[in-house]
Amino acid sequence: MSMTDRGQFFGRLCRGAVVVCFTAACLVTASLTADGQESAKSRPAASSATPPKTTKLTAQDGAPELTDKASEAIDKGLKHLLKKQRKDGSWGSVGVTSLSLMAFMARAEFPGYGPNGAALNRAKDWMLKKAKESPTGYLGGSMYEHGLATLALTELWGMTGNRAKDDAVIQKAIEAAVDVILRSQNAGGGWRYQPTPDCGQDTSVTVMVFIGLASARQAGFEVPNETITKVVAYLKSAVSKNNGGFNYIPTGRGGSKDNESIACTGGGAYAAQLAGDRGSEAVMGALRFLKERSPAIIDNNFGHYYYGHYYAIQAMVQAGDDHYAEWYPLIRDALVVRQGADGGWGNVGTDAKYTTPMAIIILATPYRCIPIYQR
Fold first, then answer.
1. Alpha-carbon torsion, ordered 151, 146, 37, 287, to 10 deg
2. Which of 33, 226, 344, 366 could be joined to 276 by an S-S link, Cβ 3.0–4.6 Å?
3. Domain region containing 295
């Protein structure tokens, strides 16, 4: 697949934060469906010469949900990440580097543009170095990391300040990463920790991997319809018959077939929505599961709190404005309170943790700058 085949790439218009980049007749964002049909929305083309511009959202921009405190928390969080960035451009691992790039992109900051463009260029170059060093296309130490890397590279493609240098290199890395995902899908439709189809499957890894794959398919990379159909089948098999949550292991864990979690439920709903299964009982049941446990799951800690809410907010976005309007202010205020004095979230050490970029991505949801996070 070439840039020309995609109608060239890519003008993007964020809500309140304008990103004006490149040539295209129009931008088509496709919602994936198991039968291969696409529900497409066109967005206007943009100038090929103008770099991205980021503006703070306000109530006047139609985003009253992004309060001053939330906007300040995003600023502090991004500054924290810049302080934690290593000299080699990374944030210590493929997974956290991918998430950190996404955190900046969620606020319409891209490699080669703006005051942080040089820092983001270093991160992008580090990611591409890792891709070049991988003979198989596998990125990171687990399929978790590989899914995140696929997502970050796909959302970077066509959005850097030096497209002549970057586009073909990023495309090659994405094609190899997608191939790893396709050939390592389990017969049951899911994925697990290693890039091989015979190592099992679980909902947590499956969701992370599929979101990267969905982003690639939205961007125009070839993903067989059969792959999507198998993912939908896996997700339906993971739904708890007792409460509508998504189980970590569909066949049971620790002697119990009910091993649902907040993270798997939010992620399972989001993945199913991206796969075109939006109005299914599996998705609606997952949304009820989350709402029935609110505000406790927002106010109180649970296992993988930031990871769980990273998925939950995206499931609410995909579910529609009413769900989003109810959920976002709750998690927004909770994250503002949880932010550390240094601008980070979670247990902060020498390197940045995944918790900080995930918190930023959640808070920055009103910007709607990243296609995979748009409805």
1. -80
2. 33
3. 59-373
